[in-house]
Amino acid sequence: MLEVLQAFSDQQNNQFAAHMARFHLAARQMGMGKADDAASTYKSLADAPTLPEEMKDLAAYRWLQISWQKDDFSEAEKVIQRLVDRHSALAPLAREIKAVRLHHDGKTAEAATIYQALAADDKASDQLRQRAAELARYLASQPTPASAP
User: Fold this and answer.
1) Deepest in the core among 54, 58, 123, 126, taking most CB within 10 A?
2) How far is CA 79 from the centre of its chain?
3) What digits encode the pLDDT tens for the residues 77-124?
């Protein structure tokens, strides 16, 4: 019985060491300017069935950061939705990311509507509500394409 437990422990340790090596690889890829490779590595870690949930969240968060830095808001939305599916408290953040993408895509009115809703969302943090209110006011003050000179 002890041998079986030891073999199981060794297998678990080997899997964990392999995952840690992949985290290290992704960090090195980022350091070498290979953001796409790092994002792919973090995505595979977020999908790894044997990785503890907290580590999957960390990998998804790093994947989200890379997507955001690359202005790939569509990819960022996918990642945050995965996180929201596991942690519903992140839903306001997902809506903010959608608003950022819409604004980036020139859909200012749609983004402003989301920001207005976020400003009134009691599930959003005070900081997010304040930021959303400021952004909604800012976007409302911008000329629309039809009224622009």
Assistant:
1) 58
2) 5
3) 889 888 988 888 888 988 988 898 899 888 999 999 999 999 999 988
What's the Cα-to-Cα distance from 11 to each of 4, 23, 44, 101, 134, rounded to whole Å? Answer: 11, 19, 20, 43, 52
Q: Full-prediction pTM beyond 0.90?
A: no
SS (H, E, C) 77-124: HHHHHHHHHHCHHHHHHHHHHHHHHHHHCCCHHHHHHHHHHHHCCCCC
Residue from 75, 79, 35, 73 nearest 58 by CA: 79
Task: Work out the number of other CB atoms within 10 angstroms of the CB of residue 138.
Answer: 13
For 6, 12, 96, the CA distances from 2, given in Å and listed in that order, are 6, 15, 52
d(CA 75, CA 107): 18
Sequence-separated (6 or more) residues with CB below 8 Å from residue 15: 50
